[in-house]
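tl;dr need the bound structure. longer version: we got a ligand (zinc ion) that a collaborator sent over and nobodys looked at where it sits. i said id run it. heres the input, straight from their email, havent touched it
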Amino acid sequence: MRKDAVMEKKRIPSMLLNNLLSQVDQTMGRRSLIMLLRRAGLSRYIDNLPPLNELPSIRVEQYSELLANVYELFGARSAQDIFLRDGRLSAAELRRQRPAQFALTGTALKLLSTGRQMQIVLDRLVEQTTEVYGASCNLHEEPDAFVLDIRVCPYCAEIARRSREEERPVPRPVCHIPVAMLEEMVEWATGEKHLVEEVACIAKGDPTCRFWVGR
Ligand SMILES: [Zn+2]
């Protein structure tokens, strides 16, 4: 099966949809949330947010469309706010809901060097991103950074598609959710903040979404 075909079949855990919609509610207000849900064809979630658990919710493709609607409806600046808050929350929620994948890491981590701590938690996050979205990720190490590539990216797939279709260029990277997830996870693992930057984004016409995580 093609990689993007796998992505289309997956359904994202309810908790991730809950986090996103809650952030829209808190940042933009309830009327904006309702407008967004109507536009995205997800009116069933009006006054009925998906639960904070692992139950499958919308397909990855619909999730990409929802993010594109957030971007279009509220503009790049507000979308960035929403995505960054959502990413931080979602990283913490992933650890809470999937203790088997992270708990052992937590206790064993403290004895290791910062570089090893980062590598372990980033490996886990790559695993989880692949498992949740069917996204195709690759992590490699450089002297002063870890570099994560997402080649089939659920976060900007629809923003990129609309930009091509409408010949409306996207000037800046838009995958702020993984940026915030990387920041939060690395901070959790190392106890310190590390700079994370999206240095290439498919939505801008780059061949891959690339995230630079400073050591
Ligand atoms: Zn991107």
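gonna send this back to them w/ a short note. The first helix runs from residue 3 to 9.
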